[in-house]
Amino acid sequence: METLSSPQAPTAKRRSRSLRRFLANRMAVIGLVFVTLMCLVAIFAPVIAPFDPIQDIFSGTRGNPPSSEHWMGHDHLGRDLFSRVIYGTRIALIVGLASSLIAVVLGVAVGAAAGYFGGRIDAFLSLLIDTLMAFPLIALLILLAAVLGPSLTTTIIVIGMTVWARYARVVRAEVMSLRERDFVSAARAMGSQTGRILLQHVIPNVLSSVIVLASLQIGTIIILESALSFLGLGVRPPTLTWGGILADGRAFILRYPHIAIFPGIMIVATVLAFNFVGDGLRDALDPHQRS
């Protein structure tokens, strides 16, 4: 029966309207182009990087400034900084995307359970969410990374396991309103199992909010990963990260400032690009927006 089914997927007209709103946001389009370029750079880093970022050491070029052959100059050991920054893109995106995936899965699961079941389950899970959000995030990350030891896997898991609370809070609020809707009540009356109701009727209706939040959170995760690597608690050398390159240039900031400037610019630009995309998605997917 049509009245017992969940809301249909957005119509082609609505999707077209959302796409037009997104494309009308110039900064969102610029951000999307930049993010796409960064993904291509990460994938084809061995092709794009002109030199080996670790093995190729040019004698007598320690801390040399940018030149026509070495666009970002040399680091404190004489290695090509441009090649090192190119390879650092890989870790930034891997950590950003993988940690976001972990956070989304955990946040949606906890938030949906809290919002749908209510009662004691909601009280317990809400207390867990509020407790996690009350901790200073960077302090919690430093503590966990120091206990577990620095590595790429640890960095991804630690960040993903600590930033999911924001997703859970958003999903919980939306599920609490959805659980009283007619299509959910009708599904329960027809004998549908709780898991089926959540997976087929409830969670699909909160995904737009989750997608917007995820696009905004990736930039935050890149900053967190860079901070951990900068402190020596993130990805271990010789794996290249922007935060690690920043840490290398910290001791030479007055003599060779370009060593810290270029990875810093990449962090800022990438975070801004993801934020622009998130803002554009939020405006495009907002059901209260009308063209």
What brief labels describe this structure?
mainly alpha
Give a description of the structure.
The structure is a single chain. The protein has 291 residues and is mainly alpha-helical. Helix 2 packs across helix 4. The protein contains 13 helices and no strands.
Short summary:
The protein has 291 residues and is mainly α. It has 13 helices and no strands. It has a single domain (12-43, 87-285), classed as MetI-like fold (Orthogonal Bundle).
Helix/strand structural class: mainly alpha
CATH architecture title: Orthogonal Bundle
| Annotation, overall tally of beta strands | 0
Q: Estimate percent helicity.
A: 55-70%
Shape: elongated
Calculate the terminal CA-CA distance, rounded to whole Å. Answer: 32 Å
Task: Please give the structural blueprint.
Blueprint: H1 12-24, H2 26-43, H3 45-48, H4 81-117, H5 119-134, H6 137-148, H7 152-162, H8 165-178, H9 182-189, H10 194-202, H11 207-230, H12 242-250, H13 258-285
